[in-house]
Amino acid sequence: MKEQKPTYEELEARLAQAEETLRAIRSGSIDAIVGDQGMLIMRAKAAEDALRETQKTLEAVVETAPILIVMTDSRGRIVLFNRACEELTGYSRQEVLGKTIPELFLSPEWVPIVAERFADPFNPALQELHINPWITKTGEERLIEWRCKALPMPRGTGYFVLGTGLDITERKRAEEEREKLEAQLRQAQKMEAVGRLAGGVAHDFNNMLTTILGYADLALREVSPESPLHDDLLEIVKAAQRSADLTRQLLAFARRQTVNPIVLDLNDAVSGLLKMLRRLIGEDIDLIWMPGHDLWPVKIDPSQVDQLLANLAVNARDAITGVGKITIETHNVVLDEAYCVDHVDFLPGEYVMLAVSDTGVGMSKEVLEHLFEPFFTTKEVGKGTGLGLATVYGIVKQNDGFINVYSEPGQGTTFKIYLPRSEAQSVEIPAEKTAEPLWGGRETVLIVEDEKAILDIGERVLEGLGYTVLVARSPNEAIRLAEEHVGDIHLLITDVVMPEMNGRDLAEQLTSIRPGIKCLYMSGYTANVIAQRGVLNEGVCFIQKPFSAMSLAVKVREALEQAS
Q1: How many domains does the chain have?
Q2: What's this model's pTM, rounded to 2 decimal places?
Q3: Which of 209, 261, 306, 451 could make an S-S bridge to 546, C-beta 3.0–4.6 Å?
């Protein structure tokens, strides 16, 4: 059937309807739109409005998001830069739009790394988490954790790369600080464990050395100086004394060294040692002394100051090849909370710092981690025992101080020791007395020692000097002898640590049985029954194992003649 053409009246009506629709569109009057064509136009406009609202919402989300959102085009130019990026970098979006990330935010060493990463923007690996630093407008480096994704443009005209990032700078710093503190804590725990082990070894070793020295001394008294055996025995004595020096260093590290601290001016103590130190380090090395002004007093045994400086000077000397300098300086220092946060063993307060620096070869990080451990040494076999710096560490800790080491390969080393300020006034360091040995006596002495060899040595030495000697292998046996012995007992010589009870408790019990009895303590280390952290109570007589026959003779006379 042939299609009929519309009449003129119908065309006129359609035109009028179209004009009305056009006017409605122009005026925005949706209600004036009718018919199928009007419905289509109305739907298109609604979709356009919805799209516009969605775009506004997305823009608001991007703008207010706490994360970094940045987008670049296929040429690497920035086309989107949200407010979080502005706040982090200090750049406004007007300053960055059209520029590239490398020219604004990357340090030179990171440019090739990032370029390689974005060489293929559609590589799935690009979406994996990666971290790189951004440089802010002020030059600060911030560590950013990124995820990126390539977004193709319609009809293959190019692509965008969208990156979302988190500033993890503070989190990384906190993690590094925690790891640093954990490492320091592990090191402190390790040093404490090694110290306990060293103290135990030294105690047992000193008992054996006491036996060796004692029997060697007794044999020397029986052998003529012209006998070939005489020189052999002297060598045994020398070897035992050198071994005793090693155990004293172990005890210093373990903080069980017997000391007699006084309040002193560290400048005076160091000044008195300079001549000795110059002889120790040799003529090729300059020794520079830089005393601090108005130095606070510290409380320490003067002999420990000698040990500290001698060991540090030897260590510095060995680190210098040929000519060089060693500098000793002192200062008053106040350590605050902020400093102590970074140094796990340190406590805030007022300290006197003693620093020893050298121009030597320096040390690596690996060496520094083991520096204070006993028997650790970088020297050749036979050139060192590895106890010098362990001794320094023990002395510092025994005096409630702290020690820091600064060193890099080729840059020398500085040891800084911090000793607590004493509120008391310093006194002059007493000069050493050279007392003549007082041999022999007629008093009665009770020796209590659970090591039979040491007991036998003490008995033979003192009987040979004219004393009446009673011996006991245990505290209970000593109490029984004190109760049963008919005559006087003038002196108790007792080991500190024994089965059944310690030496001090034994002395207290014997005093109740034998009022007026005097006491001489002996030990391979100083126990807390005699001392608090290795410090002898005033007036206590003590002899450190190992000891020679002459040392025992002198100490016995001192104890017997001490005023009650």
Answers
A1: 4
A2: 0.45
A3: 209
